Amino acid sequence: MTHQRLSENVKVYAIYNETGDPKFPHDKLRPFMFIWRNREYRVQNITYVWRETQGQAEVYHFTVSDGANVFELAYNAKALDWTITGTYAE
């Protein structure tokens, strides 16, 4: 399996659920589709989620799969933007 590091802005469609557990704010936000390099990807699975602090911003990382490929998406809660930070391929 190969991993490619990236840092490109992507358009992400996500569901925000106000009733998520306040201890785990990432439970409130779930990406379900993104557009990267003019191609649409539908998220079938979210396999891993973690949060980190970058300066004053909280950044939520999501490892997602479209059923064929695995991607890492990051949401910067201060800048309100999404970035694709990596891909995994066989």
Tell me the layout of helices and strands.
Elements: E1 2-9, E2 11-16, E3 29-36, E4 39-42, E5 45-54, E6 57-65, E7 70-76, E8 81-89
Antiparallel strand pairs: 1-8, 2-3, 3-4, 5-6, 6-7, 7-8
What is the strand tally?
A: 8
Strand pairing plus helix content: what structural class?
Answer: mainly beta
**Helical stretch tally:** 0
The sequence of SSEs as H and E is EEEEEEEE
In percent terms, what proportion of residues is strand? over 45%
Rg over CA atoms, rounded to whole Å, is 13 Å
Distance between the termini: 4 Å
Report mean pLDDT, rounded to a whole number: 91
Contiguous runs where pLDDT drops below 50 for at least 5 residues: none
Describe what this molecule looks like in 3D.
The chain is mainly β. It contains no helices and 8 strands. It has a 5-stranded antiparallel β-sheet, with no helix packed on it. Strands 2-3-4 form a 3-stranded antiparallel β-sheet, with no helix packed on it. A hairpin with a 2-residue loop joins β5 (45-54) and β6. The chain is globular and about 35 Å long. The termini are close together. The model has no long low-confidence stretch (mean pLDDT 91).
